[in-house]
Amino acid sequence: MTVRGPVLLGLDVGTYSSKGVLTTLDGQIIAQHVVAHGVSMPAPGQVEQDADAVWWADAQSLIRALLETVDPTQVMGVACSAIGPTLLPLNKHGQPLRPGILYGIDTRAGAQIDALNHELGEELLFTHSQMALTSQAIGPKIRWLREREPDVWARTQTLTTASSYLVYRLTGRHVMDHHTGAHFMPLYDPRTRQWSETFCPAVLADRGLDLLPELAWSDERAGEVTSEAGQLTGLLPGTPVAVGTVDALAEAISVGATQSGDLMVMYGSTTFFVLVQPLSTPDPRVWSVGGAFAGQVNLAAGMGTTGSLTRWMADEFARDLPTEQAYGALFAEAARIPPGADGLLMLPYFSGERTPINDPQARGVIAGLTLAHTRGHLFRAALEGVGFGIRHNLEAFRDLGADIRRVIAVGGGTKGRVWLQIVSDVTGVAQEMTQVSLGASYGDAFLAGRAAGVLAPEDLQGWIQPAELVVPEAAAKAAYDRLYPLYRELYTSTRSVVHALSRS
């Protein structure tokens, strides 16, 4: 099928799949395409992906598939988002020197976090960056690279991230959005919104800030498609390309979470939170970062293992079924189990945990198992454990006085209506759904329109149509209110044992 008229192209590279979409200028979806991929785990706590074989290969595949629907001359703009913040070192030719080191689920830099806190002082680092050093921070991972892979470090000429690498392959320009740049702490100053030399020696040693990309806002134009990129993708050289951002921020844009008080909850391989604020409210438990558009401020947070936990359970407990059938069976079984999973309680920290406990040595814990429990009980407990983790993050936001006016849910996990209901019951908050819940690539399409100069920020509201409101059920909420203190206690009471096991 072919269509006429101008279109926008959005691309998103996620943890386990990449998605692309073509839209009209008013947000109507013309075509979409998905490519699956995996991750590499070379050692405990290390999670990586190949920048060319996964990120760039997926982008090329998606673009070519989408261009079967339209003529390249119809594409007014392109925008990319990707998992982040990630760390990717490039040589002087712009070629990757090693696989990309992923975001907070990669916990390899614990020793470097400790060293930086000791050398520079936790309070000083927090005051400077408005965030505490955690596994989400890129500065410690840069130091890990310098200390553990000196040969790679010696050849490094650019330090970039996944979305920025895609933009570089399309335009030849190294540029990074402010939301991602804030996570390259302590090299970013949130007050000046510029790279800062203050802590360069501790992170970069004798190297300078010229290793880092230029900084810009997500919806600004990074450049245009080069002749080489055009040959590889089929895009018309000269097509505008947006600066882009991490997948979570693009997800927030995709559901219209761009006004003060809007909170996006992204149900993906991890669960991510983006709250739009009028002013920054720094706190060590969560992240204070730039927003999508010039001058915006976000309060952000992220759990370590949510959708990837349900995937693991489908792989391990329903391996006799194809993936989609496995999910269907597990969700159906979980729906028949009462709140509380008949006495089961699970900590979903299977890859350590990010916010609000920021504990890379945390691990999954299942308490209360009996011979009467089934895989349906375990799956229900996993969904509830994620719900308790979401509640923990929302409480941290409220402790800071954050004004959460509405909660919008998005991402692949929203297909499981049972899960959404559990989360609303656990947290006591209603969750809005939109008619288009395609996710980050849809938000990228809007960013493409902004970079091309054919859309204004207020045009986004015309793209967003409400679909459903998931509200808490009183009886279930009462049950979860009784269990939540036990969930919190389970972590504190098992922490020393779990930490010892993580070091074994």
Can I get a quick summary?
With 504 residues, the chain is of the alpha+beta class. It has helices spanning 51-66, 110-120, 122-129, 139-148, 150-155, 162-171, 178-182, 200-204, 227-233, 247-254, 307-317, 323-335, 375-399, 417-427, 440-452, 474-502; strands at residues 7-13, 17-23, 29-36, 48-49, 75-82, 88-90, 100-101, 158-160, 175-177, 188-189, 194-195, 214-216, 221-224, 240-242, 245-246, 262-267, 271-277, 287-290, 297-302, 345-347, 365-367, 406-410, 431-434, 466-470.
What would you note in describing this structure?
- Its EC number is 2.7.1.17.
- 37% of the residues lie in helices and 20% in strands.
- 55% of the residues are buried.
- The protein contains 16 helices and 24 strands.
- The protein folds into 2 domains: 7-247, ATPase, nucleotide binding domain (Nucleotidyltransferase, domain 5, 2-Layer Sandwich), CATH 3.30.420; 256-436 and 473-504, Nucleotidyltransferase, domain 5 (2-Layer Sandwich), CATH 3.30.420.40.
- The protein has a 5-stranded mixed beta sheet, with helices on both faces.
- Helix 2 packs across helix 3, helix 12 packs across helix 13 and helix 13 (375-399) packs across helix 14.
- The model has no long low-confidence stretch (mean pLDDT 96).
- The protein has 504 residues and is of the alpha+beta class.
- The chain has helices at residues 51-66, 110-120, 122-129, 139-148, 150-155, 162-171, 178-182, 200-204, 227-233, 247-254, 307-317, 323-335, 375-399, 417-427, 440-452, 474-502; strands spanning 7-13, 17-23, 29-36, 48-49, 75-82, 88-90, 100-101, 158-160, 175-177, 188-189, 194-195, 214-216, 221-224, 240-242, 245-246, 262-267, 271-277, 287-290, 297-302, 345-347, 365-367, 406-410, 431-434, 466-470.
